[in-house]
Design brief:
- This protein is an all-alpha fold.
- It has one domain.
- Helices cover 53% and strands 0% of the residues.
- It has helices at 4-15, 19-24, 26-50, 59-62.
- The radius of gyration is 15 Å and the shape is globular.
Length: 89
């Protein structure tokens, strides 16, 4: 389960999706990222118990970046409002 502080960070980011705010709250982001990565690690361990192929994956293989690609987007907000991972063996 994710910590309430992780969810609070995402809620705050929704209200302040701008680079200066993010830089001032970088520690909160790093804590949220670490919490999410630990969650994905636990999920991978559970999946590996069901299918050993999942054991070949690392957290870094699965977790997406929080930074948005804004080059061709009309919406120029720099950060995604969620943490995400893709697990594919």
């Amino acid at each position: 389960m994710l910590k309430p502080t992780t969810l609070q960070f995402l809620n705050d980011l929704k209200q302040h999706n701008e680079r200066p705010w993010f830089q001032n709250n970088k520690e909160s982001y790093l804590d949220a990222k670490k919490d999410f990565e630990q969650f994905i690690q636990r999920l991978l361990l559970e999946l590996t118990a069901l299918d050993s192929d999942y054991g070949k994956l690392s957290v870094k293989d699965c977790v997406f970046r929080i930074y948005r690609d804004i080059r061709f987007s009309k919406d120029k907000t720099p950060y995604k409002l969620h943490l995400a991972a893709g697990i594919n063996k």
